[in-house]
Amino acid sequence: MQRIGVFVCWCGSNIAGTVDVQAVSDALQNEPGVVFSTNYQYMCSQAGQDIIKNAIAEHKLTGIVVCSCSPRMHEATFRKTAAAAGLNPYMVEIANIREQCSWVHKDMPTGTEKAIILGKAAVAKVNLNAPLKPGESPVTKRALVIGGGIAGIQTALDIAEAGFPVDIVEKKPTIGGKMAQLDKTFPTLDCAACILTPKMVDVAQNENIRIFSYSEIEEVGGFVGNFDVKIRKKARFVNEDICTGCGICTEKCPQKKVPNEFNLGMDNRRAIYIPFAQAVPKVATIDADYCTMLKTGKCGVCSKVCTAGAIDYTQKDEIIEEKYGAIVAATGFNPISMDKFDEYAYNQSKDVITSLEFERLTNAAGPSAGKLVRPSDGKHPHTIVFVQCVGSRCSACAEKGKEYCSKICCMYTAKHAMLTRDKYPDTDVYVFYIDVRTPGKAFDEFYRRAVEEYGVHYIKGMVGKVSPEGDKLMVQASDILANKQLHIEADLVVLAAAIEPDKSARPLATQLTASMDTNDFFTEAHPKLRPVESPTAGVFLSGTCQGPKDIPETVSQASAAAAKVIGLLAKDKLTGNPCVAGSDELMCNGCSSCERVCPYGAITYVDKEFRMPDRTTRVRRVASVNEAVCQGCGACTVACPSGAMDLKGFATKQIIAEVDAICR
Amino acid sequence: MQINGEFQPKIVAFCCNWCSYAGADLAGNNRLAYPENVKIIKVPCSCRVNPMFILRAFQRGADGVILCGCHPGDCHYTSGNYYTRRRMALLFSMLNYLGIEKERTRVEWVSAAEGAKFAQTMNEFTEAVAALGENKRLEDLRCKK
Questions:
Q1: Which of A43-47, A212-216, A642-646, B74-78 has the lowest mean pLDDT?
Q2: Least confident stretch, A279-293, A335-349, A639-653, B72-86
Q3: What are phi and psi of A322, to 5 degrees?
Q4: What is the helix (H) or strand (E) element at residue A555, kind and residue range?
Q5: Which chain B residues contact residue A633 at CB under 8 A?
Q6: Which of A164-173, A268-277, A416-425, A575-584 is predicted with the least confidence, judged by mean pLDDT?
Q7: Residue B48 is nearest to which of A638, A659, A662, comparing CB atoms?
Q8: Tens digits of per-residue pLDDT, A134-160?
Q9: Distance from CA of B31 to the nearest CA of A (A)
Q10: pTM higher than 0.90 for the full model?
Q11: pLDDT, tens digit, for every residue of B16-34?
Q12: Which positions in chain B touch A70 (Cβ < 8 Å)?
């Protein structure tokens, strides 16, 4: 028989406001096995934990029920408390009377009644708990970073600095990501390339870092400390080890009409290309969709001009298999498609562009060599209208845009407006906004400079319609502070498109079994206290794949993720989850049902000798669970027809006891 | 169970640790009310729920049983919720044959981010079960005190 202690937490007034905690601890006092029951203001505090420790010693407790917040919050805390007092940590159960009781029910009698029932269920479970000991597994001291933007770069560099090998997998031919496409960066206006490209070179030169560019994740298996990953290295038809990146092939290729994605389709590149001059790795890639040689077998110009002999038209996709201890998702973002925003005439006029396109137009390496011109006729625009929140904060138009704030648009629009006025003082610049949001170090000062020093016209109100008329764009908008309608004849309209997670994030989350929110951003293990960890052990989050962020925030999160990875890789052994399946060999009839449903292949069969009652021995085939591989889902326990398979910590008897307590 | 002459159904909700239990926590964090009739039992994965648990609940006087798991494709254990889907389709149709109306049983996918969906699901489910009245088909009177 267990000797159970019940500890009811008030959580200040969070629980005590809706639940009569005294009544709960009194009611649970009379439950079978309970020898001690009390309540306290904050059980998780040092004083609260001391109450638990003292009670364990004084009443020789063998099990503990804490009626408090969610086990996702403090189960680990109370398990540690129990362990510190010499009790097996798995003899602790939490009754969640905050998130699932006091916070969702309004009045005291119902809240108290439910809390008592939840407490009874937990007591019933603890009565059947058994001490568990976690197994240990080794850690593969190598990290995988998925995505080679500034987030992935920073994470990889930090991990490599600590002495652990890192692989970066980037789906594009070069690392650099979105930041490589930017011109200047707010609020200091330093040039993006000047601060990014040295980091890219650092990555290339770091002995601990391998870059798999033009590669994608094919398959992820295993678990924290021991992930097995297959990487598909797509055929680029150029031998990376031989190519010197001289670029002659990219000048001689006769296929000139390929939209250049690096410049967002505003100019063309060849079928063999290097995305930009500072690309890392600086290796040419053949675009199989456009290459005449690959499509028709007739051409071969690049192969003829390549002095290094790096062109290989027969190259095939390669699958690389590697083991990793930790995985960092850094898949980044994209601006949303403007196709559904007909009112801004994005598809009707070349002179309606997105902010990222504006960024390329002002970039010295961009399609216009840094001269701000209209994409349609190459003329200098004299009136520019910036439209904020295109698809952001769009709760009414959920099928078009996003409900969330994209966070970076206010600042980059201020930057664009300021730089335009600085370089071309003859230009009239209008910015239409819902609110200007500039929290951040030196951000508001930056925005105010745009308004006060550079004379940018900030107008609170939204643009209703943009209609091309001749070579002008007629902008209809409202100024809600002056309460009037505006008609502006603009030469260029720039849309601050909302940002969304990259399309590759969703399938990746499935491969990693990491969870996502409804907007396809990765969810963090705890929104405040564990912001760079995914709920899936060993998977970490870096940058905008977790939520909209600017560069400073992305870099800090990237370093934070790296610190977490380093902490994991520094361990020699990981303690596993002791809640694993186990088979009762005497009941098992070796039918293989459990083996067939196990997603991890943790179940094998062994022939075992059994002594029979008549003192003879018989060899029988029985299931055996590899505890290091079992993740404890419990699929096998239900599949087992003889009831031999059970799950530690969530045993059939324990769950039935909970059901009984709830239905009592 | 009757309280003040009004029928209050007993509802057991099995929630998987990774998605739905966290979704229920989120409903709590956001103070999204749902009926206190719903009592949650945490399981590692919805596929841990043995049909026996559901039969046991009805036998012991539950009026409705709901299983919540990760969305298809999002299972923390890759395929657990697919097993749940298949097993429960079978079990629920058998229960329906036995006279446990199909409105008393339900499988719902609730992600860790869907606190609102959790609360809404529980509101709807409780209402549907309450409308059916007490479960008397499987209740074992010997279990009553």
A1: B74-78
A2: B72-86
A3: -145, 155
A4: helix A551-569
A5: 44-45, 47-48, 76-77, 80
A6: A575-584
A7: A638
A8: 888 899 999 999 999 999 999 999 999
A9: 5
A10: no
A11: 999 999 999 999 999 999 9
A12: 21, 25, 28
Q: What is the pLDDT of residue A527?
A: 79
Q: What is the mean pLDDT of residues A516-528?
A: 87
Tokens 């890392």 appear where? A280
pLDDT of residue B145: 58
- Kindly report the backbone phi and psi dihedral angles of residue A169, in degrees, each rounded to the nearest multiple of 5, phi listed first: -110, 120
Q: Do B77 and A513 touch (CB under 8 A)?
A: yes
Within 10 A of A418 (CB to CB), how many other CB atoms are there? 23
* Whether the predicted pLDDT of A397 surpasses 90: no
- Nearest-CA neighbor of A467 among A484, A488, A485? A488
- Indicate which of B15, B34, B39 best probes the interface with A, i.e. most A CBs within 10 Å of its own CB: B39
- Mutation target to probe the A interface, by most A beta carbons within 10 A, among B6, B26, B77 is B77
- Say if the Cβ atoms of B111 and A515 lie within 8 Å: yes
Whether A663 sits inside 8 A of B10 (CB atoms) is: yes
State how far residue B10 is from chain A, nearest Cα, in angstroms.
7
A309 pLDDT higher than 70: yes
Q: Decide if A659 and B74 are in contact by the 8 Å CB cutoff.
A: no
Question: Which residues of chain B neighbour A644 with C-beta distances below 8 Å?
Answer: none
In whole angstroms, give the CA distance from residue A216 to residue A320. 10
A375-382 contacts, C-beta under 8 A, 24 or more apart? A375/A266, A375/A350, A375/A351, A376/A349, A376/A350, A376/A351, A376/A471, A377/A471, A379/A491, A380/A424, A381/A351, A381/A427, A381/A490, A381/A491, A381/A492, A382/A426, A382/A427, A382/A428, A382/A491
Instruction: Give the minimum alpha-carbon distance from B68 to chain A in angstroms, rounded to a whole number.
Output: 14
Q: Please judge whether B79 and A114 are an interchain contact, meaning their C-beta atoms are less than 8 angstroms apart.
A: no
Is residue B141 pLDDT above 90, yes or no?
no
Q: Which domains does chain A have, with CATH numbers?
A: 4-126 (3.40.50), 143-234+317-332+504-569 (3.50.50.60), 248-305 (no CATH), 335-500 (3.50.50.60), 581-648 (3.30.70.3270)
The yes-or-no verdict on residue B144 having pLDDT over 70 is: no
Spatial separation of the C-alpha atoms in residues A581 and A579, rounded to whole Å: 7
Interface size, chain A vs chain B, as Cβ–Cβ contacts under 8 Å: 153
Cα distance from B100 to chain A (closest Cα, Å)?
Answer: 17
Task: From chain A, pick out residues whose CB is under 8 angstroms from the CB of B52.
Answer: 652, 656
DSSP helix/strand/coil, B135: coil
